[in-house]
Write a structure and sequence with these properties.
It contains 13 helices and 18 strands. It is α/β, with parallel strands linked by helices and about 325 residues long. Bound molecules: iron/sulfur cluster (2 copies). One iron/sulfur cluster binds near residues 169, 188, 205, 207 and 210.
Length: about 325
């Protein structure tokens, strides 16, 4: 069973990480994979926490650097130059965190479950990785944690687009009852139903698959697969055969993700921090702790069950959802 260490005071960070064999990180260049926040988003992981993690990695004689990838949509993180500028603005500087910031947009094709994912070169070329994930809601996957940090954040723009397109709906007219449920649940107003017509604006669709999940008559299916399945596969492409230590921050738990300038309200009180070495176990522990405080909160606010990414992760061998919670 996986060990997942829970603590609420950052003074315990050292006690948490030393419960895992960090010796093998010594002498390695280690990407510290994190999301450095979209412009105007107030909830992303803060440089103060990042500095503590960098210090822990240095204590273990590793050579860390902050790492993330560019995003597919146009905005302040679309190119390496733009993202580096924003990271600097958000306080991720050598002076504040004690290491370099690297942004990547080149990938190495990696096959998982018969599909090819382009894993960021810096992750692909590393044997040891530290993942720092801010746990929060997500409009398309219900929740974003360690699996999403890699599944979407560890791959190239092309793969990000492929994941979104793969979970867009395909419509079967003969099974449609024109009930309008897909219209109600679509967060992007990409579907319209009038009497006996169903119309879909592909340009507005972000491929969250919520419409497919909520259609009771199977008139909708995913073009390729459920987004949460593709995220789990993509995460596996990033971390398989590597030594990865994960820190999940369960604070500032908002409805939407750190990519969103309007991430919505805080939907759950602060809980604390988790450290583990299995992405599925740490995300399951995160979800359980959040559900204990606010039952099914992500499903209620985002209309997507985030447990699917955990189940899919387990099915494809990304990790195991069984864990033993150790409270410091
Ligand atoms: S939810 Fe399904 S059955 Fe209802 S309108 Fe949409 S596609 Fe048709
Ligand atoms: S996949 Fe998501 S964004 Fe696209 S039509 Fe369905 S509910 Fe709307």
């Amino acid at each position: 069973m996986n060990k997942v260490v829970f603590f609420t005071d950052l003074k315990d960070l050292h006690n948490a990480v030393v419960q895992f064999p960090l010796q093998s990180f010594a002498g390695k260049k280690v990407p510290l994979k994190l999301h450095m926040g979209e412009k105007k988003n107030p909830y992303f992981v803060k440089p103060e926490l990042v500095k503590l993690v960098v210090d822990e990695l240095k204590k273990a004689h590793a050579d860390p650097f902050l790492f993330d990838t560019t995003v597919a949509y146009h905005g302040a993180r679309h190119t390496k130059t733009e993202y580096l500028k924003l990271a600097n603005l958000h306080g991720f500087t050598m002076k504040n965190v004690g290491c370099d910031v690297v942004i990547d947009d080149t990938g190495v094709p990696t096959v998982v479950e018969g599909r090819t994912f382009e894993v960021a070169e810096h992750l692909k070329n590393s044997t040891h990785i530290f993942a720092l994930s801010h746990v929060k809601g997500h409009i398309q996957s219900g929740m974003g944690g360690a699996i999403k940090n890699f599944g979407m954040g560890g791959v190239t723009k092309e793969t990000k687009i492929k994941i979104h397109k793969g979970s867009q709906p395909v419509y079967r007219k003969d099974a449609c009852t024109y009930c309008g449920v897909c219209v109600e649940v679509c967060p992007f107003e990409a579907i319209d139903v009038q009497k006996n017509t169903w119309t879909y604006n592909k340009g507005e669709c972000f491929g969250c698959g919520v419409c497919v999940d909520n259609c009771k008559t199977n008139a909708l299916r995913h073009r390729d697969a459920d987004m949460q399945f593709l995220l789990a596969c993509s995460a596996k492409a990033c971390v398989q055969d590597k030594n990865v230590l994960y820190l999940n921050e369960l604070k500032r738990i908002a409805k939407g993700c750190d990519c969103d300038p309007n991430a919505g309200p805080i939907i759950c009180p602060d809980i604390g921090y988790l450290v583990g070495d299995d992405p599925v176990a740490i995300d399951k522990a995160s979800l359980d702790l959040i559900n204990n405080v606010k039952e099914n909160v992500f499903e209620k606010v985002n209309k997507v069950n985030p447990l699917k990414q955990i189940k899919y992760g387990e099915e494809i061998g990304l990790g195991s959802s069984s864990y033993q919670l150790i409270r410091l």
